[in-house]
């Protein structure tokens, strides 16, 4: 029997990393092919212990420590790397983390680096929206990975479905109607993605179709749905609650004002506004089709309807 190849998963107890581990272990073929080394800050925590019980080698490593990352990548065949811009909201730090992973992956002879990336919004929009740092920083790392020549595939997560229930889609006073209020037209196509449920489906497809996807981007989203589509789905699932559900296109000032009330600083307000605003005119994925990315899947991705049906924020609705 061939020796298992080591797959290193960053953020092992997080949404994306946890989904990767679940998908690999749930498939007898990939579970037989790969030994998973999960990177986490504290392997003694319950979430990490649960992974250890499933056969995952949980390793403590600080993503800011080159020595610890090098040790974690030793002997690895493949790496799924994800960074968290929102932890420090520092694009320079995120880019340094990504460059370190790329350099060390090359030094350690990694055969397949899967980088959780996003499009360069500043470049895509010709400088019109220059402040979407959490996209542009990941895109800069993607370009660095290409430049240094690490064998890589770029996993491009779509707009998280989890942003809607209880977040952008909630009951608003004074009427308490279920409302989506965003600074975009109602027909804006949004590539929705269930990060917790489907990251692993796409990454498993990337790993099992390595030759097909090396050097390419895989657009990880189920489908393009508009805010109007989301309202229609909600009405279908919950006719009583959805009777008065609606979408409201709000102004830049109103959107930023709502974020300010939630305690977000001006820099983040502007970043999130531009994140919403660029989608209608330029497209989240530059208006690219999802069809080719779906060809590598052997499990269907989660639909927005299914996600809504199981969303905790919608529990008990009729």
Automatic annotation (TrEMBL):
Compartmental location: Cytoplasm, Perinuclear region; Nucleus
Pfam families, alphabetized: NmrA
Presence of keyword NADP: yes
Annotated SUPFAM superfamilies: NAD(P)-binding Rossmann-fold domains
Assigned keywords, A-Z: Cytoplasm, NADP, Nucleus
All residue ranges annotated as the NmrA-like domain in the record: 4-307
Entry's Gene Ontology cellular component terms: nucleus; perinuclear region of cytoplasm
Signal peptide: none
InterPro entries: NAD(P)-bd_dom_sf (IPR036291), NmrA-like (IPR008030), NmrA-like_oxidored (IPR051164)
CDD domains: NmrA_like_SDR_a
PANTHER family noted in UniProt: NITROGEN METABOLITE REPRESSION PROTEIN NMRA FAMILY MEMBER, NMRA-LIKE DOMAIN-CONTAINING PROTEIN-RELATED
Entry's family note: Belongs to the NmrA-type oxidoreductase family.
Protein's UniProt name: NmrA-like family domain-containing protein 1
Organism: Imshaugia aleurites
């Amino acid at each position: 029997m061939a020796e298992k190849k080591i797959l290193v998963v960053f953020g092992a107890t997080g949404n994306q990393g946890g989904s990767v581990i679940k998908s690999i272990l749930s498939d007898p073929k990939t579970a037989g092919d790969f030994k998973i080394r999960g990177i986490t800050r504290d392997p003694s925590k319950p979430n990490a212990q649960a992974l250890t019980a499933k056969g995952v080698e949980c390793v403590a490593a600080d993503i800011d420590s080159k020595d610890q990352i090098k040790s974690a990548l030793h002997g690895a065949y493949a790496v799924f790397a994800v960074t968290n811009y929102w932890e420090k909201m520092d694009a320079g730090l995120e880019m340094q983390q990504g460059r370190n992973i790329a350099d060390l992956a090359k030094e350690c002879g990694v055969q397949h680096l899967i980088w959780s990336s996003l499009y360069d919004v500043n470049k895509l929009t010709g400088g019109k929206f220059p402040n979407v740092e959490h996209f542009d920083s990941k895109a800069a790392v993607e370009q660095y990975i290409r430049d240094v020549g690490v064998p890589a595939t770029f996993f491009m997560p779509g707009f998280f479905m989890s942003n809607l229930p209880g977040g952008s889609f909630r009951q608003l006073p004074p009427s308490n109607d279920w409302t989506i209020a965003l600074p975009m037209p109602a027909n804006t196509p949004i590539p929705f993605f269930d990060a917790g449920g489907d990251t692993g489906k796409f990454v498993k497809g990337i790993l099992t179709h390595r030759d097909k996807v090396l050097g390419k981007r895989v657009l990880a989203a189920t489908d393009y749905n508009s805010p109007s589509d989301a309202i229609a789905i909600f009405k279908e699932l919950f006719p009583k609650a959805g009777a008065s559900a609606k979408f409201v296109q709000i102004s830049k000032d109103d959107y930023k004002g709502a974020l300010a009330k939630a305690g977000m600083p001006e820099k983040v307000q502007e970043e999130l506004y531009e994140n919403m605003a660029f989608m209608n005119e330029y497209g989240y994925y530059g208006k690219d089709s999802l069809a080719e990315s779906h060809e590598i899947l052997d499990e269907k991705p989660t639909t927005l309807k299914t996600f809504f049906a199981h969303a905790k924020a919608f529990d008990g609705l009729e």
